[in-house]
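We emphasize that the prediction below concerns an isolated chain of 220 residues; any contacts that depend on oligomerization or on bound cofactors are therefore not represented. The input was used exactly as deposited, without trimming of termini.
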Amino acid sequence: MSGHTSNRDDYRKSFLCHVHCLIQLGYASLKPTAFSTSEEDDITGELCRHMQALTDEKPTEPWMNLYSVHDQNPVHGVIDPASGRIKLGKRRPKLDVRFVSKWASPSQRFCVEAKRLYRSDSVNSYMGDEGLGAFAASYYAETDSAGGMLGYVQTESVSHWQTKIEARIGAESSALAISGKAKTVAQQFRAGPKHMFRSNHQRQAARDQIEIFHTLLLFC
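Result of the prediction step, given as a token string:
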């Protein structure tokens, strides 16, 4: 798969499709209304537990054996802007979810940050330096070509939050290094989550583009 561009492209498409299929299957295993007021870590922990059951314990498709799902995965090499030193130990930021596939070498990875959408200022957290901003600045997924944001919708509607997030992405497109004429693009994967869109970012630090796949999951 590493020898030809067409093979790499096909592999990447399959990888992204599988990742989002796992997200949807994990979400479908939950009772959403039971998490309408839950903290982000509680929701993410349960989502990962169900996805790990699919990849580690009871895979229902052969390809699931080739994936692993990691909860609260530390990020290495992040520099503290205040001290200029690399963050070590418990000071390292932690990605909410990391998917790893062993189909090819080096391993394909997909990093995900999750945020609750439940009060008027929730979009600030979603967009901030521990959310979408961390991907745009190369703090998260520095060497990856794709990453994901999960929005846990606990109030209002999915369309309400998607409109607010897309508006902020448009307003902050320069800071987020948005590439392309469209600030966001509709996205859908076979057997993937229903509510998705995508934004593309030309990161200066990584000198490469990263696609961020935004997924909104309803919990109210």
